[in-house]
Amino acid sequence: LIQFVVCGTDSANNCNDWNREDQTLQKCMEWLATNGSTAHLKAKQYKPSERSEILNGFHKAIESLAVPTHLQDCHQHKASKEPAMDLNGGRIVCISAFRNDSHIKSIEDSVKELITERNELIVKQRKVDTSCRLLTISFCELVFINTFPIEDQSMTSKIMEIPRHELNGLVSSEVHSVKSGRFLAAKLSYLVLSHYSLASTTVTGIPMKEEQNASSSANYDVEIVHSSEAHTDSFKTGLISTEGVCVKTFREGFSYDTITLKWCTPRTNAVELHYCTTAHRITSVDVNSRPASCLTNFLLSGRTVMLEMPRLKGTKIMSHMLSSHCGELYIHTLGTGRSTLEDPPSISEGSGGRVTDYRINDFGEMMKRNRLVACRHHQSANKEVLFPIEKSKQSLGKQTIYWPLVIGNTILYNIQIQIQNFLHLVPKEYLTEEEVLECKKSIYHLVGMESKGTNLPVPTIGIKGKGPKREELYRMVWNEMEYFVRSYCVTPEHQSILTCLLECRSKPDPHSSSTTPSVRTTTADATDESTKTQSNGTKPNESEWAWKESYDWGRHDIIPMNDTQNSSKVMEAPLKKFKANGVESSNKSLSTASQSLLM
């Protein structure tokens, strides 16, 4: 909201009010036409304004800042807290001719005193009258614009510009010095853009018929201002700074840049229909010019204008769109990336594109099982409850302790049809008796396949020559299944599945005779056998130890169940020594991708 105050020798008057009806250019022009210029402006001889005349205007401006707007008044009625706690403030822009730097300094000191006295008066008035709706001023920005004639050589023209600085906890000040006339207009345009975070866009190539000759037409340019966020996406994506795109220019005589976009008639081609990311209100800089008026009427009639970035080469880029909604003009930022109507890009176009055997379908199924939904956070007085997002992260981390990204790095995940829901049930935190029985049936089914000599599906990607033998494949899949179960073995139900797996492999559990069940079973037996073989002077079979060399895990990687202090950390402990064909790096990549999905 903007309010104009004109001060003279004796008094100061308001041109408009905080009401929405008064926030129009027509209202201000009518007031100025009715009241005319002030007495000191009618004087033939130019002279700097006196301190008392300027203070009259500041006194009126401070009174206006204490008056609540319609929105502030509504908040005071609805809020239960005291009105004094509401933040209230504004910016006072003073356009005048000052004598010297000391003149401005004395005015700053006087304004600080006026604001302090005004706040004290409002606080006292509230104590006496509870229905007082005036607000104290929490902050105030002072902007002094010193203007002087173009050829003036007096002390007024030598006032130095001072950037924004704090005077006290409530007041800040900045000083600008500029020549009168069109230079003052350019300075005001610059301050408006900086104070309200606005940006300038120039629409070029607007076809318009000539007033004198209606049969011919010419192209005109119209400058509009809007929120700077309308160009944020273009700067973030690097589209504006790309080679061959020339859109950022400086207007002659102005100290700010403008984005140049070309007029384009909208088309209904599906390829050129882009989604809208943001929409912001706009206004033309020169509202009284004929080109700006024609553009405004064209948009208010329900038409739409597409804006494209001028390019030196290549295809054009539709970046923005102008349209009207409910009598207001808006600029829409369009998505300049890949169209949503096109086919999704191939995975080979991204990072790691040389690898072509990613488990894409399995990853999509895992995403479906871990979809996030809105959930209320229930706080318990007895125990600490994690936030739902933290629970989701922990659940996803547990499910991906062992999750190869590449098909060629696993055999177990390639036989999901044969072992049914084994891979989905084991990672669960708790298992029922039916689920344990189903997992054991999957193990027995795999035993039957091995006894019948059924061939296992082997990924052919990246394999040269003959593949491994059937016996070696079964040895590898049994070792992988054992490692998979041990990774999630934290409950008695999981222990029973592990025991069943070891019994089927005829592999004794050294801790099975203990009273307390434990999962500290490792490859100690195989290690001892290897030691005996090497002591006899014979070399062990390389294919027999292929899986062990890749999946070399020791006793310290598995925590027994009777270790109550560390048993809760089993699922969170990283599998440091699991490096089968780059699975460790794949797990890290999957963990990063999973956290990005959750966030």
UniProtKB/TrEMBL annotation:
GO terms for cellular component: integrator complex; perinuclear region of cytoplasm. Residues 509-545, 580-599 are annotated as: Disordered. InterPro entries: Cell_cycle_regulator_Mat89Bb (IPR019355). Residues 583-599 have a biased composition (Polar residues). Residues 512-523 have a biased composition (Low complexity). Keywords: Cell cycle, Cell division, Coiled coil, Cytoplasm, Differentiation, Meiosis, Mitosis, Nucleus, Spermatogenesis. GO terms for biological process: cell differentiation; cell division; centrosome localization; meiotic cell cycle; regulation of mitotic cell cycle; spermatogenesis. Its main location: cytoplasm. It is found in: Cytoplasm, Perinuclear region; Nucleus. Belongs to the multiprotein complex Integrator, at least composed of IntS1, IntS2, IntS3, IntS4, omd/IntS5, IntS6, defl/IntS7, IntS8, IntS9, IntS10, IntS11, IntS12, asun/IntS13, IntS14 and IntS15. The core complex associates with protein phosphatase 2A subunits mts/PP2A and Pp2A-29B, to form the Integrator-PP2A (INTAC) complex. Belongs to the Integrator subunit 13 family. This is Protein asunder. It comes from Oppiella nova.
